[in-house]
């Protein structure tokens, strides 16, 4: 049990080899944005593949292209995650990326 939420998020990312983000509310979005920020700012030494499950949900909740158009994120930031709409698609994406980054890559 964590008494402070920031410590929970820190350990969450520290131990993670990948993330699958399911539709959720403020807490889910907070953890997603914290993770994307740390990855985008290169504060993590490891690459963490991120799956946003249910593209319809995520594209309705967050207008990613609008963020790019307004210049608050870059187009390349959209490559920090992958939308998946089925368990097999998510599994294939994660298997391929975890193999590259954590087994054959420099983090092994």
Automatic annotation (TrEMBL):
Gene3D superfamilies: 3.40.50.450
GO cellular component labels: cytosol
A Pfam family per the record: Lysine_decarbox
InterPro entries the UniProt entry points to: LOG_fam, LOG_family_nucleotidases
Record-given protein name: AMP nucleosidase
Organism for this UniProt entry: marine metagenome
């Amino acid at each position: 049990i964590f008494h402070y939420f920031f410590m929970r998020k820190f350990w969450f990312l520290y131990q993670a080899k990948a993330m699958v983000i399911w539709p959720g509310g403020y807490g889910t979005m907070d953890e997603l944005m914290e993770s994307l920020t740390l990855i985008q700012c290169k504060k993590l030494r490891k690459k963490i593949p991120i799956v946003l499950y249910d593209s319809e949900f995520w594209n309705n909740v967050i207008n990613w292209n609008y963020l790019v158009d307004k210049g608050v994120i870059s187009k390349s930031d959209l490559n920090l995650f992958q939308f998946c709409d089925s368990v097999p698609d998510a599994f294939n994406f994660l298997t391929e990326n975890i193999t590259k980054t954590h087994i054959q890559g420099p983090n092994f």
